[in-house]
Structures are given as C-alpha cells and as structure tokens.
Design brief:
- By secondary structure, this protein is of the alpha/beta class.
- The protein has two domains: about 170 residues, Rossmann fold; about 190 residues, Dehydroquinate synthase-like, alpha domain.
- The longest helix has 20 residues.
- Bound molecules: nicotinamide-adenine-dinucleotide (NAD).
C-alpha cells in the first residue's frame, strides 16, 4: 500500500493506493456527519457483486445514487438528476460527495461537487485505469454538451483519493489498456527508464499482477502530479500531457462522441504514433528513429492500435477531414499551432508547426 500527500496549487490531500484500503476511508469519513455523506456510484457495482466488488458494500450504509458508466451519462441531464437527489436528501454545504467509478462518474460527480451550493467536498474512488492514472488527478471536472467534450466544467480537487487495485480485475480489456495508454504516453514524454520498464512488464500487466499495477499507478499519479501541481490551469508544463492528444482528438472528432469504434486511449495510441512519426521527420537522427520504432513496439505489446486497420471498425476516414479537425483544435493560437513532439524518448518539447505537409505525413503513417 502507498499513502502519500498530493499538492496541487493551494490544495493538499492524501492519496491511498493498494488493496483493503476502505478502512482508511471509513476513518476519513468520521470528519463528516453520516447524514451528509452522499455516494454517486457506477451502476456496474450494483449489478455485478463479486469477490472484489464486495469490498464496496459500505455504499449501502450511506445515502447513494447509482448511475450507468459510459459517456451517455456525462450529460446535463445526469447533472440535474444528481442535484435533485442531493436536495431531496438534504445534503448541506458541509457534506461530502464520494464518486465511485470510472472517468465518467468521476468527472460528473466532481462537477456536481464544484457547483452544488457553490462547492462541497469530494472524495474520488476511481475504478478504471483511466480514472486511476488520469482523470481523478488534476482537478478537471466536466460534462459533455452540444456534442462537445467537457464543454461545461470547472477545476475542483478532491479531499482524498482511494484507489483499490483489485477493482480493476473486472474491467474489460479494451477499457483496461485504454487507460494504460495514458501511462505509456507519460513515460514517452518524461521518463525513459519507465518507458523501457513498460516494454519489459507487458505480461505482468496483462495478468493484472497487483504489485505491477501498484507500481504503474503510483508512478503515473506522481508523474501527473508533477505536471499539474505547478501549472494548475494548463499553461506550459501541463501541455506536455497533451502529447498525442491533439492528433488523437482530430480522429475522435471524426468518429463522434457516442460510439464503440474508438476509445479515448485508442485515439491517444494513434496520436502518439503520429507524434513519433512527426518527431522523427523533424529531427531525423538515431534518437528520433528509436522513438519511432519503440513507440510502435510498445503500443503493439499493450494491445493498442498503431494504425486504422487495428480499430474496431471498417470506417476509415480520409486525411482531409482529420487535418481540418486538427487545425480547428481548441488549443490553436494565432501564430500557428502548438504541438508536443519528442526529441527522444523521455524528452518532450512544445513546438509551433505550421507546415501542413509534415502533419499530412504524420497522419499517412497510420494508414
Ligand atoms: N478529468 C480529467 O482530467 C480526465 C482525464 C481523462 C479522461 N477523462 C474523462 O474520463 C472519461 C472516460 O473514463 P473511463 O474510460 O473510466 O470511462 P467510464 O467511466 O465510462 O468507464 C468505462 C466502462 O467501465 C465500466 N466500469 C467502471 N469501473 C469498472 C470496473 N472496475 N470493472 C468493470 N467495469 C467497470 C463503466 O461502467 C463503463 O462502462 C471520459 O469522459 C473522459 O473525458 C477526464
């Protein structure tokens, strides 16, 4: 078990990673009146009780609401439903919301917590690799609206995060590896040693070995914290986390929000493949060639796509709409486009790229 303190901007809170950790949660909740504790939980855990999910049986001791996981729930309708329940249950400003689920339940609950009565306390209990590695860390909250991802949102850090690694046991392979992709991406941009370790431990990860998962998730949380703690509202350091995202998002925009053809982590996998190609085109040396080859090797080892033909669809876009989506990206600035590229494994940079030919060649690489 790992217990440590996270610091983001002026906020400090404990993060606990391990197994059998919910006694610590119960102790933490003694700071709150029981009638003021409200749990928002992924409905998966109501419908699927097994040896591991049984550890969540404490839910039934508190006021709670179950909501389906999946992007269809990250909506203004779900937001209104939760607010109504909080009012019905008389949760007051000194209460606390506990979010149990993947990134969808986490982002929705955190947005509710940041706005209900101008903001109440929150605990995250992330249950997917995406939520443990990425979405529960960094304070971003949000719901999708008008077909736009996180169009409505805020920043709101939790009071504590509890990650029980055994909950990952029931996650399907696609969601599992989709989240792992975020960790791989961070190793490409900031930690060569960890990247090389990822190349070695793929079989242990596939077995969901608890020690290996603890090591990966602990490293990921520390790495994400390092990127966000001094740059809470996304200025420079935090942008490095967008490696592969800008390209991936152009592809995600093509497929749309509510579909099973492309998961977010799969889009990132295609995105880091494109970014490795563009990086090699720009630097054209042994280091950049190594980045290109090893990126291909690692995504293959982790069941992630490095080209369109490995997706769960025969619907393959042409390059033109992808470039258009890319240039419309919200992170565009007036002098051109900021992209994150890598000079070598573990060494990312922000670069302005205005040569469309290089971008086209990058996309061609994944056909
Ligand atoms: N706030 C941030 O910084 C941030 C960062 C990355 C992603 N996100 C958001 O996260 C969301 C995606 O998160 P996600 O991939 O966790 O999706 P999700 O929450 O929809 O979970 C994926 C699926 O797994 C199920 N599930 C959850 N835990 C499970 C478990 N332990 N066992 C079996 N099934 C389980 C869910 O019911 C759902 O069907 C997106 O909305 C994305 O925008 C936010």
């Amino acid at each position: 078990m790992r217990t440590f303190e996270a610091k983001i901007s002026f906020d400090k809170f404990p993060i606990i990673i391990g197994i059998n950790i919910f006694d610590n949660l119960k102790a933490f909740l003694e700071n709150y009146s029981k009638k003021n504790i409200f749990i928002i939980c992924d409905k998966y855990f109501k419908d699927n009780i097994n040896f591991y999910t049984k550890s969540l049986s404490f839910i039934y001791e508190y006021k709670s609401l179950f909501i389906d996981g999946g992007l269809e729930s990250k909506t203004i309708e779900s937001y209104k439903l939760v607010i109504k329940e909080l009012v019905n249950e008389n949760i007051s400003r000194d209460g606390i919301i506990i979010a149990i689920g993947g990134g969808v339940i986490g982002d929705l609950s955190a947005f509710v917590a940041s706005t209900y009565q101008r903001g109440i306390d929150l605990i995250h209990i992330p249950t997917t690799t995406t939520a443990m590695i990425d979405s529960s860390i960094g304070g971003k909250t949000g719901i999708n609206h008008l077909d736009q991802v996180n169009l409505i949102g805020s920043y709101h850090n939790p009071k504590a995060i509890f990650m029980d690694l055994r909950l990952l046991d029931s996650l399907n392979d696609r969601d599992f590896y989709s989240g792992i992709c975020e960790a791989i991406k961070m190793s490409v941009t900031s930690d060569k040693e960890m990247f090389l370790k990822f190349l070695e431990i793929d079989k242990l990860v596939a077995q969901r070995n608890l020690d290996t998962l603890e090591e990966i998730i602990y490293w990921s949380v520390l790495t994400k914290l390092k990127h966000v703690s001094n740059d809470y509202k996304e200025k420079s350091m935090r942008l490095i986390l967008n490696y592969g995202h800008t390209f991936g998002q152009a592809i995600e925009t093509y497929y749309g929000l509510y579909q099973e053809k492309l998961k977010h982590g799969e889009a990132i996998s295609l995105g880091i493949s494109i970014a490795s190609k563009i990086s090699h085109l720009l630097f054209n040396n042994e280091e950049s060639k190594n980045l290109l080859m090893k990126t291909k090797e690692i995504v293959n080892k982790y069941n992630l796509p490095d080209n369109f033909h490995k997706l769960n669809t025969s619907d393959i876009p042409s390059i033109k709409p992808l470039i258009k989506n890319l240039l419309n990206d919200k992170k565009r600035i007036s002098e051109g486009n900021r992209f994150i590229i890598c000079e070598s494994i573990g060494n990312a940079k922000i670069k302005l790229l205005s040569d469309e030919n290089i971008l086209i060649k990058g996309f061609e690489y994944i056909y």
